[in-house]
Amino acid sequence: MAIEAWAKLLSGWDGFELVEVEEHPVGPQQPVPEIVLRLRAVPGYPKRCSRCGEPVVEIHDVSERRVRDLPVFDWDTWVVFPRARLACPRCGPTVEAVPWLDRYQRMTTRLAEKIAR
């Protein structure tokens, strides 16, 4: 499936855009099929402090984060994206706020809401 089709089908990552989709079918090392969606930050999209919510310009560093998302058919779905550590002038060092991911969560908010229902 083309990346544009995946992006239309699986959207909702404010501040990020889909750049790659990896499919890992069942195999000897892979007991459950999975899809890995790789995102990148949208250039020019403001990064916000996860504590006060204010826009922050200064980025301390960026690390890759991997979280679960809603399954696609019977395939487990993982989202891999760069998460920035910010130097907020009001709060000090913190991570950027990601609207679709609650603080300290290892799954997207839509997966958490689906599980709660």
Keywords:
single chain; 117 residues; mainly beta; five-stranded mixed β-sheet; 13% helix
Report the β-strand fraction as a percent range: over 45%
What pattern of helices and strands is seen along the backbone?
A: HEEEEEEEH
Kindly state the mean pLDDT as a whole number?
A: 90
Nearest-angstrom radius of gyration?
A: 16 Å
Number of strands: 7
> DSSP helix count?
2
Helical fraction equals 10-25%
- Alpha-carbon distance between the two ends: 30 Å
Overall 3D geometry? elongated
Low-pLDDT runs of 5+ residues are: none
**What is the subunit arrangement here?**
single chain
Overall structural class, as computed from helix and strand content, comes to mainly beta
Largest sheet: 5 strands, mixed
Structural summary, described in words:
With 117 residues, the chain is mostly beta strands. The chain contains 2 helices and 7 strands; from the N terminus they run αβββββββα. The protein has helices at residues 3-9, 109-116, and strands at residues 16-24, 34-41, 47-48, 55-56, 59-72, 75-88, 92-95. The strands form 2 sheets. Strands 1, 2, 5, 6 and 7 form a 5-stranded mixed β-sheet that branches. The chain has a two-stranded antiparallel sheet with strand order 3-4. The protein is elongated, with a radius of gyration of 16 Å.
